[in-house]
Amino acid sequence: MSQPNQEYEREGQALAIINSGAVAAMTRGEIDSQIATAKQYPRSLARVKDEAKSLACMDPATAFSCWYTVPRGGKNIEGPSVRLAEIMASAWGNLRYGARVIDEDDHFITVQGFAHDLEKNHAVTFEIRRRITYKDGRKYNDDMIAITSNAASAIALRNCIFRVVPRALVNVILTDARACAAGSIKNLEESRGNIVKYFGEKKIEKGRILAVVGRASIDDITINDVLILRNLAESIKNGDIAFDEAFPREPVKMPVAIGEVPNEPAPEPAAKKGRPRKAAPTPEPAQPGEHTEEADESGPIPPARDMAEWAQQGLPK
Predict the structure, then answer these.
(1) Is 304 left (phi over 0), alpha (psi -120 to 50) or beta?
(2) Distance in angstroms (rounded) separating the CA atoms of residues 101 and 157
(3) What does the pLDDT average to over 84-109?
(4) DSSP secondary structure string, 126-157?
(5) Which range, 34-38, 85-89, 203-207, has the best average confidence (pLDDT)?
(6) Burial of 312 (0-12, 13-18, 19+ CB in 10 A)
(7) pTM above 0.85, yes or no
(8) How far apart are CA 291 and CA 295, in angstroms?
(9) First and final CA of the chain: distance in angstroms?
(10) Least confident interval from 88-102, 212-226, 232-246
(11) For residues 220 and 251, is the Cβ–Cβ distance under 8 A?
């Protein structure tokens, strides 16, 4: 049975005619050859651990890039970053991995990441879906779509690698990276001043900085707070998070503690004499599955416009 052919053209001229069956056979042959090589040269867990630690702790900047920090609901959520996934994949060895866009429509883009442990013949795929429209329904331009697809590809790739490389090993290297980053802070007072000055040059007020770490004054900032702020700076520099997402302009409303009496609302002013006003209609609650404005908050936040400026400047010590 003949295989279907795929013809590629440019400016009306045919460039090549490729038999899809031949491409599949070539790909299968490459994978089989890589699996045979991986079996011939198996990995050593001790060597993997030593190499990963050496790369993660190469310098403070690399150590700070090994985990991400994202403020969510008044808390700082942390986890292993894309940079650590790249380090672990390099040290793990005998691994095929990558990411590709598999679908794009007028509202969303879907990216698929994959990782294949050639030595154990264990393969994992992971899909990420990201919105490519603003809240008013306008579609991103080509540059923003490319940035969104790159960010989604990095996340999909990270998730696949961390499903192939044992998480126990990842946690060990992440702990070493955090210790290396904390050890780079020699003078707490100086580090406080540097981080506040650094964000101040980016038009981030002290109040927004203190709100992220939950401190009342600059003198209350601890070493762990400095680590969080330094990691936020690294995440912004890499394009993982935007300015307003890292430092919200409006204070986050924290939940009321148990036993705490919430503030009573201020009394309404006395109504003036005369014809009573007609009460405004009460909006009906949204039905399950109905689109609401709050649903847009879960979409990706476009990176800051001056991201290039951040990339050109160094981070505070």
Answers:
(1) beta
(2) 12
(3) 93
(4) EEEEEE-B-TTSPBP-HHHHHHHHHHHHHHHH
(5) 85-89
(6) exposed
(7) no
(8) 7
(9) 66
(10) 232-246
(11) no
